[in-house]
Specification:
This protein is of the alpha/beta class and 484 residues long. It has helices spanning 2-33, 122-140, 199-212, 255-265, 319-333, 350-355, 369-381, 394-403, 422-431, 443-455; strands spanning 41-49, 55-59, 62-66, 74-82, 86-96, 150-151, 162-170, 173-179, 186-188, 227-234, 241-247, 269-276, 288-294, 298-302, 305-309, 340-344, 361-366, 387-391, 410-413, 435-440, 458-466, 476-483. α2 runs parallel beside α10 (443-455), α3 packs antiparallel against α4 (255-265) and α8 packs parallel to α9.
Length: 484
């Protein structure tokens, strides 16, 4: 009894002491940084980069984030915001430039929210992305695994096969470009270095049409105005181009003139559509699309397979890197021809269909109806007869497959940035799947999900990072996971 009382008192006072130490530490931090305030100018050494591409420096141990900086820079930072745990600054001057700093080749990169690494060597960018994935796996996933490789891009400019330009029309003049960092202020940019060069001609075609027909642009505050976004897709394997006007209405005036101008702009124009989005939302595309000229889709070629793409279809934006990514999936899949594969978040079926001729059966799951239609058409287009596609969210579709008694040998997941539902892994485990290939566009949620899978006895066997988005902070990963 006395022993228990002693343990209780020790535990009670130990907690009190820990609380006091934490309180004193927080007070010391506040005292140290009390002098740091808005509009201060401080000397700062940049030694790291955030997941959004901002440089990180420390001022008396206090984190200060500065966009447009490179690790190794010594700068004068103008503080524009101070919060409890961090501050934000802008570059007021560079005292010592990093050895990895280069001159940006884009005139608007400092204002636009797209590229974060235009002022950094590509080698350093790849080093950063590899270390970012490694940090997530170790720190968030608590997994002891060394990532050996990142697959870099052969071409770091003009690689995107899709561009969505927000527009603003004032006094009859159309401005198209991209949003400034963390804002909806449009930075004019017609010839973005990430997009195919011919997209600029498409912007001029829309501009002429808008001026001739006194088109108005959508106002987020009032919900009025017609034109919201200009949207282009290009199939790099065939050269086909789709042009889309995202509108706050049911139609567009003088569509014949718009089509004529777009046909003059693009030699390989295949499709002109309008997408109807009348909601007060930040989501770019609405659910309804109307074809006003040509086809309602374009066709691309990946790894020798043909794929049709509609406006709403998910499709990797970097054709050449996508082929490298899917080749990695095939390498990790190591198929013999006898396997049953379940491809979750399958989009237009691209990953699964590139493997279909090396497996016994393929079942794809995707929530977007038009993407499922594309997947079924893609299967027909490529003569694939061993594939089925289910229109459902991943969790409900997986449960349906489990209830059917289907036992996949391999499950492929390619979720959105938020990762997978925790419950989805319960269903995958119930299916008896021994192997999972996880394609991820966010290493933080991948690490979280790997931790969940580890609790179920799944082990990370292989992981490779792939730079799908050069000059931006995003990085893709392919992980092979096996049941112990």
């Amino acid at each position: 009894m006395i022993h228990r009382l002693f343990v209780f008192l020790f535990s009670f006072y130990q907690q009190k002491i820990i609380f006091i130490f934490i309180f004193i530490y927080d007070m010391i931090k506040m005292v140290i940084n009390v002098d740091l305030k808005k509009n201060d100018k401080i000397e700062l050494y940049i030694d790291a980069v955030t997941s959004e591409g901002s440089g990180i420096g420390r001022y008396n141990g206090f984190a200060v984030f500065v966009r447009g900086t490179v690790p190794g820079d010594k700068i004068i930072a103008h503080i524009i915001k101070v919060s409890k745990n961090y501050a934000i600054g802008i570059v007021d001057g560079i005292s010592v430039a990093s050895a990895q700093r280069i001159k940006s080749d884009c005139p608007v990169s400092e204002k636009c929210g797209g590229c974060s690494f235009r002022n950094m060597t590509y080698a350093e960018e790849l080093n950063y992305k590899l270390s970012r994935v490694q940090d997530a796996i170790s720190r968030i996933g608590h997994i002891d695994f060394t990532i050996e490789n990142i697959v870099g891009a052969d071409e770091i400019n003009h690689y995107r096969n899709k561009a969505q330009y927000p527009v603003c029309i004032e006094n009859g003049s159309l401005t198209a470009g991209f949003y400034a960092y963390k804002s909806h202020r449009i930075i004019p940019c017609r010839d973005c270095l990430l997009q195919p060069a011919e997209f600029e001609k498409g912007i001029y075609a829309f501009e002429k049409w808008a001026e001739k027909n006194h088109i108005t642009s959508f106002d987020e505050r009032t919900g009025r105005g017609l034109l919201r976004h200009i949207y282009f897709r290009k199939a790099f394997g065939t050269g086909e181009i789709m042009a889309c006007a995202v509108v706050n209405g049911k139609d567009v005036p003088d569509s014949e003139y718009l089509v004529a101008e777009l046909r003059n702009a693009f030699n390989h124009l295949k499709s002109v559509v309008i997408n109807i989005n009348r909601e007060k939302t930040n989501v770019i595309l609405g659910s309804e699309t109307k074809t006003i000229w040509g086809s309602d889709k374009i066709t691309d070629v990946l790894l020798g397979k043909k794929f049709v793409i509609s406006p709403q279809s998910f499709y990797q934006v970097n054709h050449n890197q996508c082929e490298k990514l899917y080749s990695l999936v095939a390498k990790y899949a190591d198929l013999t021809g006898s396997e049953t594969i379940v491809d979750m978040y399958c989009g237009a079926g691209t990953i699964g269909l590139t493997l279909a001729d090396r497996c016994k059966r393929l079942v794809g799951i995707e929530i977007v109806p038009s993407a499922i239609e594309n997947a079924r058409e893609n299967a027909r287009l490529n003569g694939v007869k061993n594939a089925d596609f289910i229109c459902s969210d991943a969790f409900a579709g997986a449960k349906r497959i489990d209830e059917m008694g289907l036992k996949p040998d391999l499950v492929i997941v390619d979720p959105p940035r938020k990762g997978c539902q925790k419950e989805l892994f319960d269903v995958i485990e119930n299916m008896g799947a021994k192997r999972i290939i996880y394609v991820s566009c966010d290493s933080a949620t991948l690490a979280r999900d790997l931790s969940v899978l580890a609790e179920k006895g799944y082990r990370l066997k292989n992981l490779t990072a792939v730079d799908m988005f050069p000059r931006t902070p995003h990085v893709e990963c392919v992980a092979e996971i096996v049941k112990e």
